[in-house]
Fold this sequence. Notes:
heterodimer; A: alpha/beta; globular; B: alpha+beta; Mth169, Chain: A; about 35% helix
Amino acid sequence: MKSSVIIFPGSNCDRDMDVALKKFGFKNQMVWHNDDEIPKSDLIVLPGGFSYGDYLRCGSIAGKSKIIKSVIDFANSGGLVLGICNGFQILTETGLLPGILQQNKYLNFICKNVFVKIKNKENKFFKDIKKEVLELHIAHNEGNYFCSNDELKSIEDNDQIAVTYCDQKGNDDEENNPNGALKNIAGVFSKNKNILGMMPHPERMIDQYLSGEDGSLFFENLIGSF
Amino acid sequence: MKVKVIVTLKNGVLDPQGKAIQQTLNGMSFDNVSEVRQGKYFDIEVKESDEIKAKTQVEDMCKKLLANLVIEDYKIL
């Protein structure tokens, strides 16, 4: 399976993602944001980081970059797109995913392991993961998910909530909300479930020496879903 | 011509920076400050002498890039 990781100026999780994808069997290629098109891929990944220095709004400039048209075309034709952290922010700014990531409620940059509850497994991203709760890493200043009430109703009705922040047992209540995100939302899908954006970094949890291996479950499922 | 734009958060959208500024002002003895909302201001130089055309263009810019209409409103001055 071929994957492409897009690099924007300021991306900084692109190589971690490259390592993770290759470890689990993807034939990965790196694509520069100023390229005209993306080589043939089964999966496109927008990595974490601080594209364009987070100028204007996180992800807003990357969301209008040259390569994005190809990402949008790929996504709209049903291709699998994954956005992690800044990649999630970029996907909301392009309109491919609903809502927006605002500054964390208590204005602090949060860098720690969290638990997330998988809310929907009827998709390629989580289909065969046996666990209900994953331990993953977050590192962000703008992860406070927000959308209008109408939009929230629409994403709930369409089962577009992918993962929510929770405790080890899966309680996704306000006590286990690190950043103020609406309904503890840590990740959402597009309507067709072919696009996933989420704040936690599975690529940081793929080795026993990296404080956890639940990210491995994510990538093992992903490569197995093709 | 120069076009000025102000982008602000919509009413009801949480503004943690505004809140922190308000609390700081209160702490500095500006007791009567009950709310602060922070926004962005843009000075845009457009190579266009017709005011209506320039502002129409800037409005398009606001919708496509300068503001995210999920949480922000824009005002062309």
